[in-house]
Design a protein that fits this description.
This protein is mostly helical. Helices cover about 55% and strands about 0% of the residues. The longest helix has 28 residues.
């Protein structure tokens, strides 16, 4: 009997998308019971945002290993290198998107229609901007770090979880990401009208 096997390359493409939606909807479900931890009243998600949730879901729907043993020390080093590469690349690209009026008006402003972020709005953006941030950034991190496709599954899922967390709108006391300087409060300030000139760092470190 033939056993159906999925390649690591295919898993690397599919699993982060599954993690994105599962983690996003976990926060949406918690929102019904944890209002006291919200950074903004739930009503503001509809009142202040310049794009509807239906549009965000529609846009996100459109986006949508060698087998040799490797030491955990090597994997950890590769993940750290990938984090530094991705953060450095996205920091300067993000800053450029804000400081260049043409780039902001034609690309990055789409993401900032979400003044009060919520989980599945994390990757709501103009498609070309999404390509620059996520695809190019992910490829650079993968190539420079030298990680395997299997390691990249962990890295991309971790980055996806952090991205959703930065936009989840809830500062839960048990969330370990709140201990980081670059956490939900840091990024939420950036989404406010008065915070667009600050807090360009994402997703892991603060420059």
């Amino acid at each position: 009997m033939a056993v159906f096997k999925i390649s690591d390359e295919l898993l690397a493409a599919l699993v982060p998308n599954i993690v994105y939606w599962v983690y996003s909807w976990m926060y949406m479900a918690l929102g019904s019971f944890c209002d006291k931890y919200r950074l903004h009243p739930k009503e503001e998600e509809d009142e202040k945002n310049l794009v509807s949730k239906e549009t965000v879901i529609g846009r996100n729907d459109d986006l949508a290993s060698t087998g040799q043993p490797i030491s955990y020390i090597v994997i950890a080093r590769q993940v750290v290198v990938a984090m530094v590469v991705l953060d450095t690349y996205q920091y300067f690209l993000h800053r450029c998107m804000h400081q260049n009026k043409f780039l902001y008006r034609n690309f990055h402003s789409e993401h900032h229609k979400l003044v009060v972020p919520y989980p599945y709005g994390a990757i709501y953006n103009q498609p070309f901007e999404g390509f620059l941030f996520d695809i190019v950034g992910g490829i650079l991190s993968y190539i420079i770090s030298g990680m395997s496709p299997r390691t990249s599954i962990f890295f991309y899922c971790f980055g996806t979880i952090k991205n959703v967390d930065d936009h989840c709108g809830m500062l839960l006391p048990v969330n370990p990401f709140r201990l980081l300087s670059n956490n939900i409060v840091f990024h939420d300030f950036h989404h406010q009208h008065h915070g667009g000139k600050y807090n360009f760092s994402q997703p892991f470190f603060v420059f």
